[in-house]
Amino acid sequence: MNLNAIDRYAKSLIKEAGHKIRVSFFSTIDIDSKADANDLVTNIDREVESFFVERVKQDFPEHKMVSEEGYGDKITSLDGVVWFLDPIDGTMNFIHQRRNFAISLGIYVDGVGMLGYIYDVMRDELYHAAKDEGAYFNDERLPQLEITPLEDAIIGINASWVAPNHRVENEKIIELVTRCRGTRSYGSAAIELAYVSSGRIDAYISMRLAPWDIAGGIVIAQEVGAVATNLEGVTPHLLGSDTFIVTRPGLHEEILSKYIRLK
Ligand code: IPD
Ligand code: CA
Ligand code: CA
Ligand code: CA
């Protein structure tokens, strides 16, 4: 398999899809909700996903596509080549802010992440990586991440963690957000993963993410030495949703062992 050719192909699809999304703001966008009133989807999420699925099915019929809006394949194993695609990660931002959303894509071979892409569409910023070949922000190579103490760290965490919830012990999380330098919440898991990989934030934690939210970002994160696991400390499984944490080296163990207690 020629991964360089697949890499060039994937990048050109991403850029074409990004253009479609930017152009979509010139016409009316149809908004629907899915599981609940705040779980939003638009015709553009669907159109971008079907654009990828149709192209990949035509040009690589043996590859599988796992994607959010239902145009891809249902898989029960990670054998072969699997594309994990989120056509728009941060749909709420896409609708409300018209920025701060990304196309997220990971290409895995027999369960191993080989290529990863996060494209911040409105900023025209592409974060990408190939396994063992380094990670890039546009054409600039991203340096290896260095250790940062918690006191100097900015943590990507959503306010729902400190509201009463059935997943985690709130007191510990309150201690974590009090001890770190600051917190941020961008509303796109992919962008938050890209920000950890490029050193803009130092950790990102989520209670529930789908494979298409994280598959591309994990490949990028690993190339710069970030540590990405579920909240049990093992590789997130990509056949269903999972908890998630990604940090610079050094912070992962401390946050998981001292501050995150799952109920
Ligand atoms: C969502 C975003 C959000 C995260 C949610 C995801 P979507 O993806 O990444 O930041 O908190 O868990 O589902 O639905 O906008 O693709
Ligand atoms: Ca969604
Ligand atoms: Ca998503
Ligand atoms: Ca999405």
TrEMBL record:
Pfam families: Inositol_P (PF00459). It catalyses: a myo-inositol phosphate + H2O = myo-inositol + phosphate. The lineage of its organism: Bacteria, Bacillati, Bacillota, Bacilli, Bacillales. Gene3D superfamilies: 3.40.190.80, Fructose-1,6-Bisphosphatase, subunit A, domain 1. It comes from Sporosarcina ureae. Keywords: Hydrolase, Magnesium, Metal-binding. PROSITE patterns: IMP_1, IMP_2. SUPFAM superfamilies: Carbohydrate phosphatase. Its EC number is 3.1.3.25. InterPro entries: Inositol_monoP_metal-BS, Inositol_monophosphatase-like, Inositol_monophosphatase_CS. This is inositol-phosphate phosphatase.
